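Forum: Protein Structure Q&A
Topic: Joint prediction for protein chains with partners

I've read a bunch of threads here and the consensus seems to be that you should model interacting components together rather than docking separate models afterwards. I'd like to see that in practice. Below is the full input, 508 residues plus whatever partners are listed. Could one of the regulars post the assembled result?
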Amino acid sequence: MPTAFVHDSTVLLGRSLRHILRSPDTIITTAITPITMLLLFVYVFGGAIDVGRAAYVDYLLPGILLVTVASGIAYTAFRLFTDVSSGIFERFQSMPIARSALLWGHVLTSVVANLVSLVLVVLVALAMGFRSGAGVLAWLAVLGIMLLFTTALTWLAVIPGLTATSVDGVSGFSYPLVFLPFVSSAFVPTAGMPGPVRWFAEHQPVTPIVDTLRALLAEQPVGDGLWTALAWCVGLLVVAYALAMRIHRSRTS
Amino acid sequence: MSTAHVIETVGLTKSYGDHRVLRGVDLSVPRGSVLALLGSNGAGKTTAVKILATLLKADGGTATVNGHDVATRAADVRASISLTGQFAAVDEVLTGRENLVLVARLRRVPDAGAVADGLLDRFGLTDAAGRRVATYSGGMRRRLDIAMSLVGSPPVLFLDEPTTGLDPQSRLEVWRTVRDLAGQGITVLLTTQYLDEAEQLADRIAILHEGRIIADGTLAELKRLLPAATVEYVEKQPTLEDVYLAIVGHDGPRP
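Posted by a regular:
Agreed with the consensus. Here's the joint model:
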């Protein structure tokens, strides 16, 4: 059965990747929102934001990476919705294919597409003066966290992809995700926020993930924040995966 | 389980909320035959097909396809069938050939490329093979759709309203295809709301009305259901349309 799963997922991954290659604009538009934010915050607001000794672009990049993924997974939901509404999903479901492979094909595609978008964003940040002395291990840790975060968020996107009844519904779900980083340590330090807002900012998932990425890139000790960050990602992944699979299975016998 | 009947349902029921779509459907389709499931819009034809294709769970009753129970042996059923749904389920971004190769690879057919080329040729799509399906006409999409269902030669084929929305020429093409398939021993269950389609293609016709099969037999058997008196008055043979309207009633659904 695992061989069937791997084979079917690979074939379906190939299919979705071909979709992306034929409309590369989806990768570019995924990167445009975060790059715009990067430019806006570094060159417009950044001068008024006090983040201590670090360059603002160095401070900002980790949060922008999360925004990139949050805007990228909207396409996964959209592609899945298109498959479901066009009937091709039903065709696949009536074929002898591993059940979860139908979804994994889309999830893996999302991971690949988001990685490309992330690389684009990092390249722009480099051009804007972002610098990191982080070693290979720290970069691998950053990559690992981003992969985990992308996978978890993509499984969340699978849910509207399967259940949405209109294109508007499917694209609407990602807006809160794109804006969640604003109420976190992603753009400004939480210390200056009023009590309840600060409490929320420090207890929502974006802050520990951003702080961990920032510490890794700035060659600082990551501390306990790493475990909080991993717990959020793994927790979201488990819950979103279980929900998505439950919805997926309940639709067929 | 009877080996003679490839598709068999007993007392199949399905409701959507208060709406009882299927109220006990009994069907049996002998191996290698074509059964037309005839009924008006909303009669439950698609629901019945979806249950048989493991896309929907029945509320009650049993259904077997190729000897496998659809509820407990769904994976075996899927390995035995192909479904051509009501709307052409093709990948518009891929080319026609890529669509066929995709299905062939998912079905683990050896030499997927050759199988795809063979089907493209058989369905007159060779010239369009390298074009994206988004550029295809309705008839071409439907042909590709059916071709995709034939990859790997599954013994049972479900065609849900295969000619709805097609122009007359494409319709005739689909009819030819179905006759070809029947000639190769594939068991076909097709749903249609067109009486002439059932008359043209089917070995047996089952009429689904208000959630039940109210008549089931060959065209000749169905014709005999009409009172002899009518036959005496009318000099020509009754058409299937006469039979259908006579047994389901002229004035629409009963309360």
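The two ends of chain A are 19 Å apart (CA to CA).
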